[in-house]
Amino acid sequence: MVGQIIRCDSCAVRHRSVCSALTRPEIERLNGMAHAKLLPPGAVIMRDNEKSSYFANIISGVVKLTKSLGDGRQQIVGLQFASDFLGRPFRANSPYNAEAVTDVHLCTFETQQFEKLAKEFQDLEHRLFEHTLDELDAAQEWMLLLGRKSAEEKVASFLVMVARRMQSVGCHAAGHVTRFELPLSRAEIADFLGLTIETVSRQFTRLKNDGHIAIEGARTVVVQDMDRLRNISESVDG
Amino acid sequence: MVGQIIRCDSCAVRHRSVCSALTRPEIERLNGMAHAKLLPPGAVIMRDNEKSSYFANIISGVVKLTKSLGDGRQQIVGLQFASDFLGRPFRANSPYNAEAVTDVHLCTFETQQFEKLAKEFQDLEHRLFEHTLDELDAAQEWMLLLGRKSAEEKVASFLVMVARRMQSVGCHAAGHVTRFELPLSRAEIADFLGLTIETVSRQFTRLKNDGHIAIEGARTVVVQDMDRLRNISESVDG
DNA sequence: GCCTGTTGTTGATCAAAATCAACGTCGCGT
DNA sequence: ACGCGACGTTGATTTTGATCAACAACAGGC
């Protein structure tokens, strides 16, 4: 689905997305630029090294950002959830592929219009900057994981991360989300953690056998003790 | 050495650093805020999770950004060269340790003063944004390396990257720098590539034996064929 | 229902890199 | 010159995770 006009007033991510930087009259302007898109899993949103004609806020769903080597080896370099912003402002080409992992609702903006708006309203550019800083933090945190953590620590870290993101996406006031659905397949988790499918699967059963998690039908995870899992993910004792 | 006043006019990185966003009168303001620092190898510039009281431009030398696990495992999450900017604007705490790798000349600015300036002169904030986007690109490129490349590909990638950065730091008009000094020890290279010292050493001798590089006294590398090395780093054929 | 393709698990074996260990080299202080 | 410590290389062995292979669970099409 493409091109449907959006009402920012009723937007689910109005106060968490980059749009939160805008005041009433500014939002009106943005409103006129916004178009909704609904994408199925697997839909390609941006392609590495190619120009993208639009930016987007994720209204709902999960998007993976990937990079590949010539022979097909793939690495997920970012996971984006509801309220996250897609696209590299002020860059001609996308530095990665972006692909819908679940059904994804996007609110898209034509590149030039949006960059013009960002130049006009400094708060909007500042908000984009903040989002980029968050992405950088996440990337560097993940570098530590990819370079130095064991398979078990990687899988535990992944679960902790997903639980945290699911929490902020949902509307859970306090405490941890302990039961959640994984947005990624085993193959995608492997591409995220720099492992193989088989190793990911084995670490899941290990965590299950050790009583740290329960698994319901491959995609649903119940974390018994989030702090314990976090300890495993950082190799505190154990 | 701390606190010496700097003259921006004669600054070696005046036109490549974030300062290039500023015009004559603005630079004058910045001039009044700048203090020089000369740090020896090993000097700690920022500490993970701690507040830093200043930002800095690197005038010369190399700075490593590291993150560690509780048990001492370490990962270099960024390497910064001359003209690069140090410090996370609009963030309370540093997300990594920053440490001088060589002798390092810094041009430092007090945090609050500098952020105020960035708010006033939008071009400066924009330039900081651009630098952050570059850092993010580098981080995600490195995630692909850490997650999916073999030891040989990692070391080749490292050499290609250092050659490129050395080139932009020096004043080489065109063509590749093929002979350069490594700024990092074997241990630091290992921490950058997610390998052990021994594996790094073995891959160096392998690249040497295969005739791709020559090594002079451990720290100086001569690349025979940069394109061939780049191919190895991305696993094109062979 | 049944067939088929996709996804996930488990086991056996293999290989790449880690670990353990010894030794060489260089620079520095005395 | 000598000895020491840091750094780097090389070899032997072990370990972790990859690869190869078989099969189970499940969903969708007909």
Helix content of chain A: 40-55%
What is the correct CATH architecture of the largest domain in chain A? Sandwich
Q: Strand content of the residues of chain A, in percent?
A: 15-25%
- Highest-level CATH class of the largest domain in chain A: Mainly Beta
Q: Quick one: CATH superfamily of the largest domain in chain A?
A: Jelly Rolls
Q: For the largest beta sheet of chain A, what order do the strands appear in spatially?
A: 1-2-9-4-7
Rg value of chain A: 19 Å
Number of domains of chain A: 2
Helix/strand order of chain A: EHEEEEEEEEHHHEHHEEH
| Unreliable residue stretches of chain A | none
**CATH fold label of the largest domain in chain A:** Jelly Rolls
Strand tally of chain A is: 12
Q: Biggest interface pair, residues each?
A: A-B, 43 and 43 residues
How far the N terminus sits from the C terminus of chain A, by CA atoms, comes to 50 Å
Mean pLDDT score of chain A, rounded?
Answer: 92
Q: How would you describe this structure to a colleague?
A:
- The structure is a homodimer of 238-residue chains.
- Chain A is an alpha+beta fold.
- Chain A folds into two domains: 144 residues, Jelly Rolls (Sandwich); 84 residues, Winged helix-like DNA-binding domain superfamily/Winged helix DNA-binding domain (Arc Repressor Mutant, subunit A).
- In chain A, 40% of the residues lie in helices and 24% in strands.
- The first copy, chain A, contains seven helices and twelve strands.
- A five-stranded antiparallel beta sheet of chain A has the order 1-2-9-4-7. A four-stranded antiparallel beta sheet of chain A has the order 3-8-5-6. In chain A, strands 10-12-11 form a three-stranded antiparallel beta sheet.
- Chain A is globular and about 55 Å long.
- The mean pLDDT of chain A is 92.
- Chain A binds a DNA duplex (30 and 30 nucleotides) through helix 6.
